[in-house]
Amino acid sequence: MPAESLLLDHTLRFAPDPLGRLWEAHRALTPGGKLVLVDVFRKRTLPPDVANQQAVQACGFAGAPLLADAPRLLADAGFVNVEIVDQPGALDDVIARYDAAVVTEAAPVKPVTDEEWIASTQACCGITAPTSDRLAEILKCDAVNALWAVVRIVARRP
User: What pTM, to 2 d.p., does this model score?
Assistant: First the structure.
């Protein structure tokens, strides 16, 4: 049975076919239904030495779609009225992410420090030392807030 709204929370970056995942979301919505997508997006192409790291790949950061490609990707999947809200921190509090996903207006989210982002990432991805130490090293060296952002996107099925 089609849904009036659908939340995709941190799944797109792990999808082998992001466009296919969005087409499935489109199919699952009623006409006029709302898709809320909350995920990590790359702000720019990753340097190969970062993208090729196992820790970055394990958390899906290497496969995260480019933020600049998001409107086209959603349009290609049949969505309209795409609204993108770039959250101010690369990774924010889980509760704040869910609040941002379900409200009409963007929830205020405080920027996070690199250390908070790394700790949350390690806990979220379930990685442990030495992999988590390598991830922490990579993320600290490459200014995580310059490379990635958690973004809320709201779109409609026509």
Answer: 0.70
Domains, in order of start, for the chain:
3-156 (3.40.50.150)
Sequence-distant (6+) residues with CB within 8 A of 13 are 39, 40, 41, 60, 61, 63, 64, 65
For the chain, the three-class secondary structure string (H helix, E strand, C coil) is: CCEEEEEEECCHHHCCCHHHHHHHHHHHEEEEEEEEEEEEEECCCCCHHHHCCHHHHHCCCCCCCEHHHHHHHHHHCCCEEEEEEECCCCCCCHHHHHHHHHCCCCCCCCCCCHHHHHHHHHHHHCCCCCHHHHHHHHHHHCCHHHHEEEEEEEEECC
C-alpha angle 125/130/135, rounded to 5°?
Answer: 50
Encode pLDDT of 19-45 as tens digits. 999 999 999 999 999 999 988 888 888
At position 104, the amino acid (one-letter code) is T
In this predicted structure, the answer to whether residue 107 has a pLDDT above a threshold of 50 is no
